[in-house]
Amino acid sequence: MRPVIEMLGVDTVYEGEKNATLKGVDLRIWPGDLVCVLGPNGAGKTTLLETINGILPYKMGRVTVLDEDVCTRGPKVRRQVGYMLQEHTFPESTPYLVKDVIIMGRFGRIGLFRRPNETDWNAARRAAEYMEIFHLWDRPIGKLSGGQVQKVLLARTLAKEPRILLMDEPYSNLDYRATEEISSKICELHRTRNLTTLMVIHELNHIPPDCNRIVLLKDGKILGDAPPQKMLSSSLFRHAFSEG
Ligand SMILES: Nc1ncnc2c1ncn2[C@@H]1O[C@H](COP(=O)(O)OP(=O)(O)OP(=O)(O)O)[C@@H](O)[C@H]1O
Ligand SMILES: [Mg+2]
Question: Which carries the bigger pLDDT value, residue 215 or residue 57?
Answer without folding.
Answer: 215
